[in-house]
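Proteins fold reproducibly. Next comes an illustrative record:
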Amino acid sequence: MVKLKWVFLILVWGLLFQCSVFKKEEKDNTARNLAFLTLLQDKSCRIGEYTFIVKEGSVSCSEDTIEGSGLLLATKEKEEPSIEVKIKLKEDDSLFAFYGASDEDLKTNGSGFRFSKNSAKAFHFDGTPGGVDMPDIFKPAVNIEKTVCLEIHSDEIPPHLLAWSSNCPNPPNSNPTFNSEDSGSEPGGTSANKGERWGFELKNSKIILKVNDEKIYRE
């Protein structure tokens, strides 16, 4: 009887210990999940219906505004990403870039546009080094704050780059200020796009952003 009593007590103790371990593991898993969600929240940015993962740097997001320095990748793919953006370049080294027709490595494999206080360029990842100038879009020596309309068609080879030197036209039209297919405006490059990922790069800058549901260039 004594032996049976000890066996019973050992079994009960084992069950209690196992329950306590499971509860601890559950608490630990919950804590880890909450920490992950908090980290993800800190590393993401939502503008309207679009969410962007902050892959590099640190930015602040509020409603339609992104500010700071960082690389942002949209979680939702777009074949023809189109934006209206008010660019505020705050420092001498400020930069804003809009990438599309890419995989997740936007800066290496993307096509798009770059704006600084000294230049405005359209580029392809395999094109003319530095891209081509867009003097009619953005005059950095005069304007360090400018609203432009930008569009990248990743279903063409090379991707088709279009820009308007103002708010996006409404209704949409086929008369962009810059068209990469115009003579002397093509920034080199012949490769097909790398995908339909898109996003932005900011350095000491601020943007007020609207993502268009549909493309602006209709031709």
Observations:
- The helical segments are 2-42, 106-109.
- Confidence is low (pLDDT under 50) at residues 1-13, 15-41.
- The chain has two domains: 1-42, 45-211.
